[in-house]
Amino acid sequence: MPRLPALLIATALLTAALPARSDDWLEFRGPGGASRVKEGSLPVELSAADVRWSADLPGRGLSGVLVVGDRAFVTTSDGPTQDRLHLVCLSTSTGKILWDRQVWATGRTMCHSKTSVAAPTPCSDGKRVYAIFSSNDLVCFDLDGNLQWLRGITYDYPNVSNSLGMASSLLVTADTVIVPVENDSESYSLGIDAATGVNRWRLDRPKGANWTSPVILAPGLVALQSKTGIEAIRATDGSTAWSYTDGADTVSSSALADGILYVPSNGITALTLDPADPAKQPTQAWRENTLSPATASCVVAGDALYTINGAGVLTAGDRATGKRRWQLRIEGPYSGTPVTDGKHLWAVNEAGLVRVVELGEKEGKVVATLDLGDEILCSPAAADGALYVRSNTKLHKIGR
Amino acid sequence: MVSHHRFLGAVALLLSLPSGGVAVASPITDALPVIRAVDHEGKGNAAAAKAWSVIAAADASALPDILAGMDGANPIAANWLRSAIDAVVTKAGGNARLPVDSLVRFLAETKHDPRARRLAFDLVRGADAARADKLLDGMVEDPSVELRRDAVAKVIARADALKTGEKKEEALVAYQKAFSASRNVEQIQALATTIRELGGTVDLTGHFGFLRGWQIVGPFDNTDGKGFATVYPPEETLDLSAALDGKEGKVSWQPVETADEYGVVNVNLSYPPPAPPADAKPADSDSKEGLKGVIAYAVTEFVSAEDRPAEIRLGTKNAWKIWLNGSPVFEREEYHRGMEIDQYRMPVTLRKGPNTILIKVCQDEQRRPWTTEWEFQLRVCDEVGTAIHPLGGPDSVAK
Prior knowledge:
The structure holds two protein chains of two kinds.
Chain A: H1 6-15, E1 51-56, E2 66-68, E3 71-78, E4 84-91, E5 97-104, E6 123-124, E7 128-132, E8 137-142, E9 147-152, H2 153-156, E10 171-173, E11 176-181, E12 188-193, E13 199-204, E14 215-218, E15 221-226, E16 229-234, E17 240-244, E18 255-257, E19 260-263, E20 268-272, E21 283-288, E22 299-301, E23 304-308, E24 313-318, E25 324-329, E26 339-340, E27 344-348, E28 353-359, E29 364-371, E30 381-383, E31 386-390, E32 394-399
Antiparallel strand pairs in A: 1-32, 2-3, 3-4, 4-5, 6-7, 7-8, 8-9, 10-11, 11-12, 12-13, 14-15, 15-16, 16-17, 18-19, 19-20, 20-21, 22-23, 23-24, 24-25, 26-27, 27-28, 28-29, 30-31, 31-32
Chain B: H1 4-16, H2 28-36, H3 45-56, H4 63-68, H5 75-92, H6 100-108, H7 114-127, H8 129-135, H9 145-164, H10 168-181, H11 185-197, H12 204-208, E1 213-221, E2 243-245, E3 250-252, E4 254-257, E5 265-266, H13 267-270, E6 294-304, E7 308-315, E8 319-324, E9 327-332, E10 344-350, E11 353-363, E12 375-381
Antiparallel strand pairs in B: 1-4, 1-6, 2-3, 5-12, 6-11, 7-10, 7-12, 8-9, 8-11
Helix pairs in contact in B: 2-3, 3-5, 6-7, 7-8, 9-10, 10-11
């Protein structure tokens, strides 16, 4: 083996990804889908100077951003038929693109003009990044951009598609990637071996368009949401642990916080998991039909939960009872789910206005606004003291 | 902490860098077949991951060979190679250090996979934009749809300049040339508008190859969506003279010829709902005219000049099934999620002489403003999108 200059070796080591940290943002809406961050971890006062960088993206999309260590990951699509699918890795400190890997769509790319082929948010286990697109092309790269495996779910099962576009995001737990590809025709959720990309299981799911995303209830236990309700699935074999059958929304997703699953069902229905065994049938804590999330999912922090309805009204509900506490009009519409630390809430509307809402016991108050001047349809990610939001052209880092 | 595996990868990367001064052979010959062996449901993934590392570590001079590895590969294998090329280019230090001459030679050979050639073009463009732009001049009839699209865009740009310069007749000739060459739907539609504004004529139906003439029968029952799976008589025997048991009584085949230039066959026009009684209350504001919970079949005869591969391309927002010469081609049970030209592409083999194309078009029971349509548009073309016309011309079908 030839001797390598020490400087080159050092450079190579530095360009390798750093390992994941505890406050990484590894999935759609963060841990449990609760969109919750550590109290005081995000800036409350916002100005244009807080936009640390805005990076040009190679294509469009509305998927959320992942943050793993010092790297941010985002998907895009481009080309005349949006069939060039990108997974892009950027430096969180500079916004520089570190690598960009492309594949071609093997499934259909047709979708509604408001959404995108790059709609589902990827996920990571801190070692690899898993990304799926509306065409149901599924890829797995390590953090340095080395392909581990890929699949074409519509190539495998030709009627898995939605002419309006697919949008359900991925999860990974128990070394299994949870891949919901539910639609009107050939409707499945799959559990795929995270290391090899082969099926562990494939479940027939209710036929019907479904844009909701799953939630990890406990390591190896996942909640799948559909129009029929919630199915708790064991990730390793796809077996059903329990079912909730009172129906659920097919757009906004459930959120888990402190052992309670908040399901967009008849308003919001709170299901308390058995703390000793979350695989046991949960009990219904309350149901409140005045809490009505629209596209954005509910968020949970402190002793309250928050929803934004189709009119752009933010509603605070009591976590113990579901009863409405207060409402505040924050001009919408909102496609993305806000994040909260329990004291404040950061919401980004489709016009690109970032609002910071102070969350009181009796009222909410907008305390800061930042205009990104960019259409934002994604749910923000939050990590290391910053918000990450992307548009069809840019990824913005706001905060530290 | 950096893993051992990652460290070795970084060393391999450095060894192959020009600045490292050490040349590394590209043993991709053994790796390519491993990648090409991947298939459905992750078959071959584990071996392919190792082969991918070998290919990704190759020198940029191997790019034409990697691109050629896509020839005849299934789309999953092509994607493994596609992402490896990104890694090779990154490692090479960007497009400026790529073997442009050999990429141009690869691009010139139209036998290669169209998407691989498009990728080669993009690599050349990244290194030498002017050279790539010049190459487009010879690509207006290229088998790569995207290369052809960009070549046609150059023709359009020249036509636009002529139009701006008040040379309208020359501009019209150029636009007509662009229209004739284009296989991109948006480009074709924009060109048709421009040509008509300049007083020219276009035949959109013929250009796309939409089939206008059909025989149609219905309605059959699709209450609760059960008709999608129900085998009605047209799926068993095609007797265009037979009276069949429909949803509300006997039904018979009738000829239909759509006047829509995009070939849209509006089934609602063949089976309008009965007129409401005089004392009926005003309809629900959400409801629209049209039968609900029904099914129709449409059939046409397509006379092919030869045995040949082709594509049937369909657009519809209704659930549907298609048969070619009595054999099922594809089916999809989805209602009212959208419709566009070439929404579904189905590779088929036409046989010389008459070919029967049968489509089942299902309407559900939703009553919303966006659930009224009961329609389809269908064309026959090659894989590039060039229309294949039946013998006797586009209107010679539906006997």
